[in-house]
């Protein structure tokens, strides 16, 4: 009888091991892929990226895709990387993001300075001067997202403040960097959600305390153009943009940010955390994704907002020490992102061609029909999530696992419990034998794992 239990347990353990080693490792992808894309997120990141480059057709889509390509292929040059100031000389054709952006940029003037063949640097300067000095402003000084009249969109925080912050550092202009930080606070003051106490009210006109910290989507001088809903993608735009500004402040020379560095880090990180904490508290849709409008149960769960908020959570966890997060707090944000990433890898949300779904219609976020033909924002945000997760893993941040590592540990633990149950039901089984068998298979699988990852350790 004992022999039967032993054989059954060993067989069960080997089945689990073979599933791990065949499925997760086999999904690693193209062995000829660049090192920056070698990790396995649980889905085919190569297909997602290739599809992502084909989907954009509008300026903000091109911009988001360019940022995703920079973080994916040249992470050292992104604001989250080791060389964001670009001290090393790169030829434009060596940077995929620059190659892509150059194909899409149309240079003009004023509001459309990057939209004659003048120097790119001059056009960039024109763009900063317009945003900083020419664009309409809200009553509190917040720069308008719209050109023709004052209107504040959560999206703006991803589009303009990171650009102002980076230009401020590059041009040695602390005033511009501070303006980027202040814009996040000014937008926060206007768009942050007001908690209502109307027990019978429903979103978007009423919001419960669970959403505290979230941002409303749009405030316009024309009330009919406003959107007081807690749009998940809008909150993602805001959090991800603020995260890029936060990273810029942290990586800027300390003598350059004397007098406002700590205040800026505290203010911006607090706003990001408020948005993420609200998203983490929100009940998920049946597909384990965040709803299009976070606190409205009538909406479906969708990819765009879920992915960009997850990418921000990973980035925040990676910067945990710099912003004063406890290990448990950093782990909580990383775990939220891991959950979203594993959901993307469950085989139900990314097609064989690399198209992610369901998304919200990028041009009509009130469209109740799930968008499945490919959203430019959707795919780009998954690229940002992959890049953030990869950097988090490489930084050994608590809560960031490789795709298979989590399954390896879980399967080993389940197998250990199974073997332990043999001892509890059959006292004749030596507990030291149970432990020895467990350790033997653990090291066998670990060695197999590391061989398949070609030296990459977990």
Helix content: 40-55%
Structural Rg: 24 Å
Largest sheet: 2 strands, antiparallel
Strand percentage lies at under 5%
**Protein structure class:** mainly alpha
Secondary structure: number of strands: 2
InterPro entries: 6-hairpin_glycosidase_sf (IPR008928), 6hp_glycosidase-like_sf (IPR012341), Glyco_hydro_88 (IPR010905)
Pfam families: Glyco_hydro_88
Keywords: Hydrolase, Signal
GO molecular function, one term: hydrolase activity
Word description of this protein:
This protein is mostly helical and 458 residues long. The chain has 2 domains: 1-40 and 409-458, no CATH class; 41-105 and 136-401, Glycosyltransferase (Alpha/alpha barrel). The chain is built from 16 helices and 2 strands. The protein has helices at 2-26, 45-54, 59-73, 96-104, 120-134, 156-159, 161-170, 174-191, 232-251, 261-281, 303-318, 320-323, 327-344, 376-394, 403-425, 431-452; strands at 151-153, 218-220. The protein has a two-stranded antiparallel ribbon with strand order 1-2. Helix 1 packs antiparallel against helix 15 (403-425) and helix 1 packs parallel to helix 16 (431-452).
């Amino acid at each position: 009888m004992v022999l039967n239990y032993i054989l059954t347990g060993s067989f069960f353990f080997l089945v689990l091991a073979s599933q791990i080693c065949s499925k997760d490792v086999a999904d690693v992808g193209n062995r000829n892929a660049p090192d920056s894309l070698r990790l396995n997120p649980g889905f085919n990141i190569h297909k997602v990226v290739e599809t992502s480059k084909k989907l954009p057709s509008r300026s903000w889509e091109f911009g988001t895709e360019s940022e995703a390509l920079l973080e994916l292929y040249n992470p050292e040059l992104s604001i989250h990387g080791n060389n964001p100031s670009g001290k090393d000389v790169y030829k434009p054709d060596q940077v995929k993001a620059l190659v892509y952006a150059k194909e899409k940029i149309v240079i003009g003037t004023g509001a459309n300075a990057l939209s004659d063949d003048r120097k790119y640097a001059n056009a960039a300067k024109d763009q900063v001067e317009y945003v900083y000095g020419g664009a309409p402003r809200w009553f509190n000084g917040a720069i308008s997202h719209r050109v023709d009249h004052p209107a504040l969109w959560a999206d703006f925080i991803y589009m303009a403040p990171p650009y102002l912050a980076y230009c401020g550092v590059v041009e040695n202009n602390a005033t511009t960097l501070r303006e980027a930080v202040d814009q996040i606070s000014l937008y926060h003051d206007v768009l942050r959600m007001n908690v209502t106490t109307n027990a019978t009210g429903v979103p978007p006109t009423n919001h419960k305390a669970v959403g505290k910290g979230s941002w409303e989507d749009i405030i316009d001088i024309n009330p009919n153009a406003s959107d007081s809903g807690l749009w998940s993608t809008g909150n993602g735009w805001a959090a991800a943009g603020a995260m890029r500004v936060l990273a810029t402040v942290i990586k800027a020379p300390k003598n350059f940010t004397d007098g406002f560095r700590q205040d800026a880090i505290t203010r911006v990180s607090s706003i990001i955390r408020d948005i993420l904490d609200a998203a983490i508290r929100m009940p998920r849709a049946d597909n384990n994704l965040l709803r299009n409008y976070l606190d409205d149960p009538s909406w479906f769960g969708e990819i765009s907002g879920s992915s960009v908020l997850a990418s921000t959570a990973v980035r925040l966890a990676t910067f945990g020490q710099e912003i004063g997060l406890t290990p448990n707090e950093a782990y909580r944000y990383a775990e939220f992102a891991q959950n979203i990433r594993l959901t993307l890898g469950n085989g139900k949300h990314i097609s064989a061609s690399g198209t992610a779904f369901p998304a919200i219609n990028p041009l009509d976020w009130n469209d109740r029909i799930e968008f499945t033909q490919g959203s430019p924002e959707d795919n780009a945000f998954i690229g940002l999530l992959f890049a953030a997760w990869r950097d988090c893993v490489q930084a050994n941040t608590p809560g960031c696992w490789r795709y298979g590592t989590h399954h390896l540990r879980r399967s080993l633990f389940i197998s250990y419990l199974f073997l332990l149950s043999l001892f509890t039901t059959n006292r004749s089984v030596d507990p030291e034998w149970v432990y020895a068998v467990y350790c033997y298979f653990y090291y066998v699988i670990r060695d197999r794992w590391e061989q398949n990852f070609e030296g990459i350790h977990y």
